[in-house]
């Protein structure tokens, strides 16, 4: 399975974290990364998005560039347990699959898949990584590619 893990684009300020929207710079960064993914051999079949506004906006931009459907998932918000996402990935049959979420979740999930722990690698806004997993499980992935804004 190939999994693309992407952090949302740069977002502005809002009193409610869930309502933060992308800035213009954030939109440009997301579009740049989406174009790189479009030119890669790993175009996703589906995008899973956090329900937070900035992640939904990021997923919408990527979906438009890649002509790909988006599904909101309530288990990939910033402080969710990456183990729950791992459980969902085990029943997923689509590959490549893309996931758009937040820090610290994207870092914790990526580290869990590559190194088997949840310490979390850093992600800049709009950054995406490609994980190659012959088997879905902790420590079973290889980091194959990075897409940077």
Automatic annotation (TrEMBL):
InterPro entries associated with the record: His_Pase_superF_clade-1, His_PPase_superfam
Classification via Gene3D superfamilies: Phosphoglycerate mutase-like (3.40.50.1240)
Top-level taxon: Bacteria
CDD domains linked to this entry: HP_PGM_like
SUPFAM superfamilies given in the database record: Phosphoglycerate mutase-like
Source organism per UniProt: Marinobacter daepoensis
Protein name from the UniProt record: Histidine phosphatase family protein
